[in-house]
Design a protein that fits this description.
With 312 residues, the protein is mainly alpha-helical. It has 14 helices and no strands.
């Protein structure tokens, strides 16, 4: 330390002397150092870009393969599986949708996923607002009761749930499957929304009360708009959970007119197992809504997930 101080003072004197008597030489040294630093940064950035482009190619190429293969017949798939289709067989899509009934399965899946997602987000947003912004004696106890559902495996509840539905005489399979989707998404949705709402400043509510807002107005006009990142997160999670479900649909949906897209694809695999073009059409149709909703809401999902992860 004793030797470092004189060295620092001498270095400072050299810089001052160069700045006074040789400013052009000092400027040249600065430009050279800056160019060396920029070269190192540029090299690191190029390596990062190459890595991320390669990673994106690994992720996107299977999707591209399914898309271009869905327009082929079996001969094209076996002769040139990696090549671009010689003839686009749009008949694969028309046959799958209109001849073999996948259109009904697609409509059912969209209906179940959208309705269950909307109901779950609305109910859980209200519950999270009450539990986090309106402090009362049993709020923590009820919050813990809701969060217990996160630890319950879905597989362990299948048999009791099936017995419960039969004994209650619930005969509408569409209402049953939507209710089940909502029930099993409550715990995770409340956990993420309550974690986000709890971090919002209370001064906003105090200012709103002074301006004459009541509790419903505070929820709809202040808390809910500020919770868009968390709402986007739970919307994606709930929609994808309902959209990709196979287990509940396999147990609770017995009529062909009520079955989801996943069950329709499974039927395709059993009935048209040798026609790979039809199977790839079903897989492609199943991927499109997931990619669309994630592409629309992905900018807000990261912020919502990060805030939700800070709970506790």
């Amino acid at each position: 330390m004793a030797m470092a101080a004189p060295l620092q003072r001498s270095s400072l004197r050299c810089v001052l002397w160069l700045q006074l008597y040789c400013p052009e030489y000092l400027r040249a040294i600065q430009l050279r150092c800056r160019s060396e630093i920029m070269a190192k940064v540029t090299l690191v950035q190029r390596i990062k870009y190459i890595f991320f482009w390669f990673y994106a190619l690994i992720i996107l190429y299977p999707i591209w393969f399914v898309f271009q293969s869905s327009f082929k017949d079996n001969n094209d798939l076996f002769l040139s599986p990696w090549a671009f289709p010689r003839v686009f067989r749009w008949q694969n899509y028309s046959d799958v949708f209109f001849k073999y009934g996948l259109k009904t399965n697609l409509f059912n899946s969209l209906t179940y996923a959208i309705l269950s997602c909307m109901i779950a987000v609305l109910i859980c947003a209200m519950a999270s607002f009450v539990l986090t912004r309106m402090h009362w004696k049993l709020s923590k106890l009820i919050m813990g009761f809701f969060l217990l559902g996160v630890m319950v495996p879905i597989q362990s509840a299948l048999v009791p749930l099936y017995i419960l539905v039969n004994r209650m005489g619930l005969t509408n399979p569409r209402v049953n499957i939507i209710s089940i989707f909502v029930a099993f998404s409550i715990s995770t949705t409340i956990f993420i929304l309550s974690s986000f709402m709890e971090n919002l400043p209370h001064e906003l509510e105090e200012a709103a009360v002074i301006d004459g807002c009541n509790i419903p107005m505070i929820f709809w006009k202040i808390i809910l708009p500020l919770s868009k990142p968390a709402i986007a997160t739970v919307t994606i999670l709930n929609f994808l959970g309902s959209w990709n479900d196979l287990m509940f649909g396999l147990i609770f949906l017995n009529n062909e007119a009520d079955k989801t897209l996943q069950l329709g694809i499974m039927r395709f695999q059993s009935n048209f197992g040798t026609n790979y073009g039809y199977a790839l059409v079903g897989i492609m149709v199943a991927m499109i809504p997931s990619m669309l909703i994630y592409g629309i809401l992905q900018d807000k999902m990261v912020k919502g997930m990060t805030t939700g992860a800070l709970k506790g």
